Amino acid sequence: MKKKLLIEIVIVLLISIGGMYFTFKKQMNLGLDLRGGAYILLEAQSDNGKAITSDDMARLVEVLDRRINGIGVAESRVQISGTDRVLVEIPGVTDTEQAVNMIGKTALLEFQLVEKDGTLTNTGLSGRDLESSEVTFGDMGQPQIAFTLNINGAERFAKITRDNIGRELAITLDGEIQSAPRINTAIPGGRGVISGNYTLEEAKSFSTLLNAGALPVRAEILETRSVGATLGKTSIEASIMAGKLAIGLIIAYMIIMYKFPGLIASIALINFGIIVFGVLNYIDAVLTLPGIAGFILSLGMAVDANVIIFERIKEEIRNGQSIIKSVDAGFKKAFSAIFDSNITTLIMTTILFSLGTGPVKGFAVTLTIGTIASMFTAIIVTKLLLKASLLYIKGINAKSFGIKEVA
Amino acid sequence: MRLEIVNKSKLWLGISGIVIAISLVGLLTRGLNLGIDFTGGNLIQVKFDKEVSLNELNTVLDEISKDYNQLGHGRIVQESEENEFMIRTIELSEEERNGILSKIKAFSEFDLLKSEKVGAAIGEELKVNATYALLLGSVLIVLYITLRFEFKFAIAAVVALFHDIIISVGIIALLAYEVNTPFIAAVLTILGYSINDTIVVFDRIREMHRKNKSAKLADIIDDSINSVMTRSINTSLTTFLAVGAMLIFGGDSLKTFMATLLVGVIAGTYSSIFVVSPVVYLLEKKEGLKNLK
After folding, report:
1. Interchain contact, A242 vs B249, CB within 8 Å
2. Regions in chain B scoring below 50 on pLDDT
3. Domain check: are B184 and B102 in the same one?
4. A151 touches chain B (CB under 8 A)
5. Which chain A residues are closer than 8 Å to B292 by Cβ?
6. For the structural domain made of A109-218, what CATH number should be given?
7. For residue B121, which of A192, A365, A391, B19 sits 20 to 30 Å off, Cα-Cα?
8. Which residues of chain B from 158 to 217 reach within 8 Å of chain A, CB to CB?
9. Could you tell me the pTM of the whole model?
10. Three-state secondary-structure class, residue A173
11. A241 touches chain B (CB under 8 A)
């Protein structure tokens, strides 16, 4: 009996230490709602009925990723969401403006000849033939974009310029003319300059767009959300405060209502918190505001399991059973209620996870982990602590369970 | 003290009926105050550096709407804290939004706390997904309860479920709180919570029935309720404490979420005690738990 208990204690200790290790090993990943940042959801648009392929999507993500890296934001995330959507998350950017400007553009660069009537004719040379671009400064110090074409592009460029001396060559981005210099001489070597009327900022983002390449398909922005760092900080402080208060109130309530086992349950609850955060950190989950809400809610449910068990134990004691037997019977009889009610919660969280989007998913993840952890702590940890105390601490009687009279 | 559930079932169901009626009236007359997550549109939250009143801001916005007529119709401005406002508009393009912001800036410097834009298609999707989730959740729970208890219990559980959801949604409509994505999570959580409470009662009925198969249905039900009563109250109180703490100190963004949960917890506790059992009694009166597993 004692030996089995000892083994169990060691196992629970190991799990708790593991939980603690993962909880404190690294900083929790905070969601954009807590740390501030921008969140942008795009949808690939199929033109003329052509289906969006997974290749298109992969390339879309690649290009977007390069563009955002071009702005120089660390830890940004670009990922495919569903079949034809891309989710972009950029921490730190408090205003969506810059991010949207960088992301929303298709950025198709084209070289087109200007006809006499002002219309444009495609030359077949485009951004695909670009090797690189950079911001340079013109004679007057005005920012401009210098580009280098790849071998294929350079050959084409040389031919176009040679054949069209005297005409204007328009350089367009997404159909908009950036500049239309007159071709004075054939240009071999594939180098050139786009000298629109740019501010330094514009020139920089233009160059980044060119270097990242054009989007393989048009992408439309469906949703943007940005949270300033101030609001994020307030939210963290508020929820930590609320969490502490909730835990404090629950512990006080449990100890007042259930005396000694209430104390045990409080220790188990702390253990519950460690396990939940350990697991969240281990799976690299991102903690969001709804996630914290899910945690606090599962805290309530973890308490519930303990309450169900303690009420059962009290019933048994009142019926005249010995304390040890009551504890055993209490856990045994409480099990089916705890199990069935938690399974239904898990059914709900599974649905939430599979049908929900970002914030709802975060809520579902913490609530799922919380529900499983609450079963573990109530059924295993509380039981172990109670039994061990009965074994090693003398003088635990019906009164310690908050019972005045025994039948 | 011993509560008589079966004998006084008309009273208990009557109370529920009245609250449901009030909720339905709220829901039908006022409707839910749908946020941009559902309707699509833009939301801007700003904190001004100087003292600004709601009236002043509205005057400024009216002025700006001469250039940006999107600001003119369907605009909702709310003061969330001192000098801090939420401006809800119809969907704006990035240029329009920036234009409006710079015009507001000309009036007073501010800190942009939050800016959101949701396309109408996304809002539509959210509604559809929420309905799916609710239906799928109900069906799965009916299946599970039928498997573990019996079909009539599942019906009673679903009655309690709709009871709780109608009341929570109705009260939120009456309070005119703005609802967004988290609201759906809250409603689905209430679903889980409601079932949770109900199952604890069912579990007791099942156990008492197994122990004494010849006991009268009304006695079994009343005994079960009275033995789980302390648990129900204690659990509700602790959950109430946790949710209440979040509601009061958790900041503005989760207000609707937490308020919905709070109403749901109260409704769920009530229904698990006073609604589920009378319904089970009415359904089982003839056959008397003979199919209970």
Report:
1. yes
2. none
3. no
4. no
5. none
6. 3.30.1360.200
7. A365
8. 181-182, 184-185, 188-189, 191-193, 195-197, 199-200, 202-204, 206-207
9. 0.80
10. strand
11. yes
Number of domains in chain B: 2
What is the predicted pLDDT for the residue at A405?
63
Determine whether domain A2-32+228-401 maps to CATH 1.20.1640.10: yes
Which residue of chain A has the CA closest to B204? A337
A 10 A CB-CB count for B255 gives 18
Q: Which residues of A touch B184 (CB under 8 A)?
A: 356, 360
Please identify, among B67, B88, B118, the residue that sits at the C-terminal boundary of a domain.
Answer: B118
Asked whether residue B57 falls in the same domain as residue B171, the answer is: no
- For B10, half-sphere exposure in the C-beta direction (CA atoms, 13 angstrom radius) is 1
| Structural domain range at position B62 | 41-118
Is the CB of residue B153 less than 8 Å from the CB of residue B206?
no
- How many Å lie between the alpha carbon of A224 and the closest alpha carbon of chain B? 5
Rounded to the nearest angstrom, the minimum Cα separation between B51 and chain A is 19
Q: What is the pLDDT of residues A61-73, one digit of tens each?
A: 888 888 887 776 6
Answer yes or no: do B249 and A297 touch at CB < 8 A: no
Q: Is A65 exposed, middle or buried (0-12, 13-18, 19+ CB in 10 A)?
A: middle
Asked whether residue A83 carries a pLDDT value surpassing 90, the answer given is no
CATH code at B114?
A: 3.30.70.3400
Q: What is the CATH number of domain A37-104?
A: 3.30.70.3400
